[in-house]
Amino acid sequence: MEKITFDQLQEEMYYEKLNNGLDVYILPKRGFNKTYATFTTKYGSIDNHFLPPGKEEFVKVPDGIAHFLEHKLFEKEDGDVFQQFSKQGASANAFTSFTRTAYLFSSTSNVEQNLVTLLDFVQEPYFTEKTVEKEKGIIGQEITMYDDNPDWRLYFGLIENMYKNHPVKIDIAGTVESISHITKDMLYECYETFYHPSNMLLFIVGPVDPVQTMDLVRDNQNNKDYKEQPEIKREFNEESAEAAEKKKVLEMNVQTSKCLVGIKSKNVSQTGKAMLKNELSVNVLLDILFGKSSDHYSSLYNEGLIDDTFSFDYTQEQGFGFAMVGGDTNDPERLAEVLQKMLLDAKAKGAISQETLERTKKKKIGAFLRAVNSPEYIANQFTRYAFNEMDLFDVVPTLESITLNDVKNAAVDLISEDRFTVCQVVPKK
Amino acid sequence: MDVISESVKAMKGFKLHVVKTEKYKTNTLVWKMKAPLNKETVTIRSLLPHVLQSNSASYPSTGKLRSSLDELYGATLFVDLAKKGEYHVITMSVEIANEKFLSDNTPLLKKAFQFLSEILTKPNVQGIAFEKETVAKEKRTLKQRIQSVYDDKMRYSNFRLVQEMCKGEPYELHVHGDKEDVDPITPESLYQYYQTALSEDELDLYVIGDVNEADAESYAGELLSFEERTPKTSEPRPGSSKNDVNEVREEQDVKQGKLNIGYRTNVVYGDPDYYALQVFNGIFGGFSHSKLFLNVREKASLAYYVASRLESHKGLMMVMSGIDNKNYDQAVNIIKEQLEAMKNGDFTEQEIDQTQAVIKNQLLETVDTARGIVEVLYHNVVSGKDITLQTWMEEMDKVTSEEIAEVAKKVSLDTVYFLTGKEAGK
Questions:
Q1: Domain range for residue B319?
Q2: Would the CB atoms of A89 and B103 count as touching at under 8 Å?
Q3: What's the pLDDT score for residue A350?
Q4: Which among A308, A317, B107, B228 is most buried, taking Cβ atoms within 10 Å?
């Protein structure tokens, strides 16, 4: 077990790679009541085309299967795992993203028992045709719930505009139609491919004893019989740089219009320090352009084009990435036009002062401190960073190192008219 | 076990609550203004904090104000409005880095106090009115905020249930007020109302973090001072005792039907059977081991979400679920059956134990965040009670199955609201 200390943050973390390949991290948090643990596989909605272990041919699986599998792991022969966790005073949950599926619990008592339950339920799948069929009704309602949600439709509409082939454009839960094709055998095939410990990461944060906790996890894993698994082979179709579609307008049962402008990123093969630097530089750039202290924010707000739902975000993973900015608006056409002009101007002129940069860096450093108050943030973000070969605890030093040139380069790299796209939700006529 | 230790001190016109803890890398100030909820003031009150947070005398534009926060290592300023029973509560909070985790050790806590004091006591005023452009902009945003409830169907159906159920009671009001009441507000009337609120509201300041109590007291004393007052209380209103269940069905273009059911619990925070009510709600619908989740979702496969939650100060319980339009009768019946089961004592010791464990866990987790600590402690301000977290957990742990069944019998169905799609064949 390795001990890593972060002096400035006054935190320490323990790490061990177990024999079966599982990465285990423990971050003791004194003074907290809660222990929070996530058990995450590097497997999300985009991993729909892959080579199952021991097979010769690539398979393509129905949209929404990673999320479906997440639901089904909770069900066991003797009932569902939620019951077990609540008996042990824990609350459990899970989520599926584009690139990850995470199982988690938080509890203020019986932490060791809960940890064992977490490891065991994720590592002992139990799928039957009957329970798979039953789940289709439940997930069907989850999908319909999102169908009625204008913010979700707007977000996914924008991503669909950007990508022609990449599976990031597929809704994480799939559709009622696509999940109807899911069978228990497909679930087992996905499970066998992606749930090997060597593709997973366990993160535990809370008032725990690191040595004892690591012993417990190690024993648990050593008692399970995992054969070594070769590297997972995933397949993605070619994706061109420009946005697949420039614009989409969705008519929905709403009273207020919504508009997002998106930019498809071209930096999608970075990992590690390069990725961290780029991601943070883009975040700093967007904050300088559109943060509440920016001139743009004031002028948009003063003109009545935006309200307090206005936001911006940057996502970067292996194979896809995008920036988005927008929110509710009285005039989706004008907002789309103004935002695109602001972005293009930022690239052309790039007039950012050193003072603004320093202020924004300070803001981001403060935001990081606020974020690490949260065990959930630490566990989830650390895992995401680790899957991209980055280190969450490099954030502050990397932020401190960002120069005007970095921000300028980020703008030049990111902003390009052919990678712009617009999605709007407008009231149904 | 760490339980929160709160020290409370009466200051000039407000109470200072200090919770010292070393868990966080930031310090948090939370300012609360509470007044009875009513139609005349709800809209103007909901505009107020948004105007205050836009700018101030020293920072006359949003850009300047927000830049000053950025300079303070991205201190955050956040405003919020809530209904707590029949009270309307304005919250303004400032969170700032604790400099001991920064390479630059300039003390920041006092700056947070100065900032809060600036926006509260030195607003951007011209004569006896708020700056008019600011008011105009925030009125426009408020209208949009009120209107946006319609677009989120989960929030909308919950709002509609409350509106139908509490017709004629202040609680029917939307937390952000009424759209029609926005236009008549003027920079003068808003400023005047602010003076009234500052002199009449119940005011509380919470300071949470690794702070020295004496420092907090001296900053608060030096920077904030208001006239003494006896805060107004809202009349306790027992829920209307309708005999018939009110059924409301509304048609809209939605794919998923939203079923929201309202009950009167006839129990409020601080009542002797409040703890039993908590456990009752947990067994019935509060968690993913509860009867509703098990029977509506896991067994009948009708819904993705189905849950119940309590409004502790008003004495309401709300069940919410998203279902297929055609499954309305089945879902309503299952929910009714589960409540009957609760009244008949049809639940096991295991369900009680599970629920007590999970509620305890939830409370302890809540107080792991600064905002959660304030949330828990503020219940006492709203109710005028003095219940510590320790007492809350101990009392909850003592609840027996008889007490749970007894409190279940007090829970009465009031209104069933269903937002249904247009193709619903019924």
A1: 246-420
A2: no
A3: 75
A4: A317
Q: Do A301 and B73 lie within an 8 Å CB cutoff?
A: no
Claim to verify: residue B289 and residue B219 sit in the same structural domain: no
Q: Give the residue from B67, B155, B279 with the most A CB atoms within 10 Å of its CB, the best one to mutate.
A: B67
B166, B192, B223 — which closes off a domain?
Answer: B223
Mutation pick from B289, B350, B422 vs chain A, by most beta carbons of A within 10 Å, is B289
CATH number of the domain to which B339 belongs:
3.30.830.10
Is A375 at the interface with chain B, CB within 8 A?
Answer: yes
The answer to the question of residue B316 being in a domain is yes
Pinpoint the alpha helices (H) of A325-353: 332-349
Residues B29 and B64 in one domain: yes
Q: CA-to-CA distance for B308 and B310, rounded, in angstroms?
A: 7
List the structure tokens of B335.
């929910």
Relative to beta strand B412-420, strand B246-251 is: parallel
Place of tokens 């973000």: A381
Q: In angstroms, what separates the C-alpha of B298 from chain A's closest C-alpha?
A: 8
- Residues 137-196 (A) with a CB less than 8 A from some CB of B: 137-139, 141-142, 144-145, 147-151
Q: Which residues of A touch B1 (CB under 8 A)?
A: 33
How far apart CA A110 and CA A88 sit, in angstroms, is 6
Closest to A89 (Cα-Cα) out of A116, A107, A113, A104? A107
B62/A301 Cβ within 8 A:
yes
Q: How far apart are CA B22 and CA B24, in angstroms?
A: 6
CB of B115 within 8 A of CB of B68? yes
Q: Both B96 and B150 in a single domain?
A: yes
**Burial class of residue A130, CB neighbours in 10 A (0-12, 13-18, 19+):** exposed
A109 chain-B contacts, CB cut-off 8 A? 357, 360-361
Task: Pick the last residue of a domain from B191, B223, B255.
Answer: B223
Q: Note whether B254 and B187 are same-domain residues.
A: no
* H-only helix segments in B151-186: 153-165
Q: Do A106 and B304 touch (CB under 8 A)?
A: no
CB contact under 8 A, B140 and A366: no
Please indicate, yes or no, if residue B304 is contained in any of the structural domains.
yes
Shortest Cα distance from A86 to chain B (angstroms)?
5
pLDDT per residue as tens, chain B (426 positions)? 447 889 999 999 999 999 999 999 999 999 999 999 999 999 999 999 999 999 999 999 999 999 999 999 999 999 999 999 999 999 999 999 999 998 888 899 999 999 999 999 999 999 999 999 999 999 999 999 999 999 999 999 999 999 999 999 999 999 999 999 999 999 999 999 999 999 999 999 999 999 999 999 999 999 999 999 999 888 766 666 667 899 999 999 999 999 999 999 999 999 999 999 999 999 999 999 999 999 999 999 999 999 999 999 999 999 999 999 999 999 999 999 999 999 999 999 999 999 999 999 999 999 999 999 999 999 999 999 999 999 999 999 999 999 999 999 999 999 999 999 886 444
Counting Cα atoms < 13 Å in the Cβ hemisphere of A159 gives 21
Tell whether B219 is covered by a domain.
Answer: yes
What ipTM was assigned to the predicted interfaces of this complex?
0.92
Instruction: State the Cα–Cα distance between residues B359 and B399, nearest whole angstrom.
Output: 12
Instruction: List residues of A with catalytic annotation.
Output: 70
B149 and B73 share a domain? yes
Segment B281-330, tens digit of pLDDT: 999 999 999 999 999 999 999 999 999 999 999 999 999 999 999 999 99
Q: Which domains does chain A have, with CATH numbers?
A: 2-234 (3.30.830.10), 247-427 (3.30.830.10)
B330 and B281 share a domain?
yes
Which of B137, B179, B288 would you mutate first to test chain A, the one with the most A CBs within 10 A? B288
User: B66 and B176 share a domain?
Assistant: yes
Residue B73, in any domain of the structure: yes
Does B211 share its domain with B358? no
Residue contact A106–B365, C-beta within 8 A: yes
Find the closest chain A residue to B98 by CA distance: A369
Distance from CA of A364 to the nearest CA of B (A): 7
Residue A342 C-alpha, separation from nearest chain B C-alpha, in angstroms: 17
